[in-house]
Write a structure and sequence with these properties.
Largest sheet of chain A: 2 strands, antiparallel
Strand content of chain A: under 5%
Oligomer: homodimer
Structural class of chain A: mainly alpha
Number of strands of chain A: 2
Largest interface: A-B, 36 and 36 residues
Order of helices and strands of chain A: HHHHHEEHHHHHHHHHHH
Shape of chain A: globular
Number of helices of chain A: 16
């Protein structure tokens, strides 16, 4: 399919007239309401009292939606997968809390980060409490799904946590060692670990397991999620440079301040020469607090002028296409359903979004 | 028993002539060697490459020793509990890494903390990787212990993590809200959650489960661990004020710099009056970085002069006695063994230690 068709499919739900935004919001509201309804009483001020903060903020809820929709598209019941979808959303929120501590971020989902408002001590505790609530949800799967399936989902989770940590470590290492000679392939390998597995492959696999698909059948679903996650991450990195909307909820140019090795920055590092090359190397060698707004604005401008941003957008569109094709094959046996339409509309939606 | 007998028992292994230090070292070496032998290859510089750092440093290894000794004393096999003991040590190391981030500590087990050496980003990742390795160990229990017992140990772990987080949150809250009117009971409740469950009750319960003791039987073991943990924590707090030994491995007076609500500080806050009371309240209201060495030295001196340190030592001795009595009852059916002697020697050892 052509990118334009895909983008239109993302807006309109392929040919089915499905409203992707509305469907995403429905999944999200269901999962967040269940998550918030079952939290332990906030007896301890610093701990469970702050757990609802991130989940209550505006968000896409992509991960639990992928889990629920995959389960339903493959013939499973939404209500049976709900507990696992809540666990996935809890792990994601814990990850965001820890990530904000690591990146010293100021803004998350449109409000102050926990670390900016309450400091590292409290934020780290709230992150750990949120992770624990995720683990408790997985343990609560046993009476719902039986012991064998609950254990398999625990294993999927352990696998996902390992891949995310490894991907994140790789990214940290690049910044720490000031890696300036990376290739697009390095980025994609990191992205498979850090984003695709965590954001797409893991939720889809869990949904497929609950629907009764044996693990061996998930290869096509893995490919669907792998490309979808990469399209998602590249679009995220592009949005970080271009968005001026309150819906976005993060700091604009935050990636540049952090020296994050995005596909665009890797592209720019490969093509730049002479004094410009020296300037970007010098910029990246600095500590975050020593970087200047002038340098950040300059780098932002150069990424646009040299076509790095445009090429990244084109790559994201190609990945979305590949994800759509893999999704068609993965869900070829599945009867037409809103869940299936939703999944197939996501690749186009991903690259068309503004938040 | 009298405190002096108990202390002697701690040195000599009750009447059995057991060398507690040597036995503790044997358990520790076994667990650390197993832990280090099975780590994933250090392919990623920032992540698994730093996981061995804390486990390799000199430590007591109390927690895995409690697990192994309880299992053996109750008729179980050490080799069958080893995997769980390694998991317990991994969770403990992850906790220490996170704790050092939260407290901005400089020194751990005699060397620089991970956060001081590598920053919050890397340290947080290494802590999470260590937690994940603990989880993977628990999942590896399945072929060793079967699915029902593996699940029970997972539940014990979830319970322990919840209690630790709650205890730690309570302690954080006291510092944040500058709580100055706490009672000894508040301290003991926090200590049950933060120290006793985590350090003693959880490892003993896991050991008992593996030995085949049903959960209902663990009430006496819980009491043994509850008092042992409190004696351990109070001794730890006293050591923080008094130790000038390289074996100690933490910053002397670190608790005072942090404003930590130890039993001694709570005691002092209750008895102090007038200008001295104002001075300590003012000191505690300050941020850590605004506190002065002069004030810390003054508070240290006053805790000694007013008998707070001595009373805490006496309380720890009473708790050790209560732990010994509960241990005698808990292991009354168990035949004489080195493991049983070791467990019964621990209360005395705990209050006699210098690190």
């Amino acid at each position: 399919v052509a990118p334009e068709t895909l983008r239109r499919a993302g807006r309109t739900g392929a040919t089915s007239g499905l409203d992707v935004d509305a469907e995403l919001a429905r999944y999200r509201d269901l999962v967040v309401a269940t998550l918030l309804a079952d939290l332990p009483p906030a007896t301890v001020g610093g701990l469970y009292g702050l757990v609802p903060s991130y989940p209550s903020r505006p968000s896409k809820g992509l991960r639990p939606a992928l889990c629920l929709a995959t389960c339903v598209a493959l013939g499973g019941e939404e209500s049976v997968a709900l507990n696992s979808a809540v666990a996935i959303e809890l792990f994601h929120n814990a990850f965001l809390i820890h990530d904000d501590i690591q990146d010293e971020s100021e803004l998350r989902r449109g409000s102050s980060t926990l670390v900016a408002e309450h400091g590292v001590e409290v934020a780290l505790n709230v992150g750990n409490a949120t992770n624990l609530l995720g683990l408790q949800r997985l343990m609560a799967n046993r009476p719902i799904l039986g012991s064998a399936l609950s254990w398999e989902i625990m294993q999927e989770t352990e696998r996902m946590l390992g891949k995310s940590l490894e991907g994140q470590a790789r990214e940290l290492e690049w910044i720490r060692d000031n890696a300036c000679d990376l290739a697009a392939d390095d980025y994609y390998r990191m992205c498979l670990l850090k984003t695709s597995w965590y954001t797409c492959i893991y939720p889809c696999r869990v949904g497929a397991l609950i629907a009764g698909r044996p693990t061996a059948d998930t290869e096509l679903i893995d490919r669907f999620g792998w490309y979808l996650g990469a399209a998602f991450q590249i679009t995220d990195d592009v949005l970080n440079l271009s968005v001026d909307s309150p819906r976005y909820g993060k700091e604009v140019d935050g990636d540049l301040w952090e020296g994050k090795r995005t596909l665009m920055l890797i592209d720019f590092l490969q093509l730049t020469r002479g004094r410009e090359r020296q300037r970007v190397h010098r910029f990246l060698a600095q500590r975050r607090q020593d970087r200047t707004p002038g340098d950040v604005a300059w780098l932002h401008e150069r990424l646009v002028e040299t076509g790095c941003v445009q090429r990244a957008r084109a790559d994201a569109a190609q990945l979305a296409e590949a994800s759509y094709d893999a999704g068609l094959a993965a869900f070829a046996d599945a009867p037409q359903s809103a869940a299936r339409d939703f999944l197939l509309a996501l690749p186009g939606y991903m690259i068309g979004r503004d938040r």
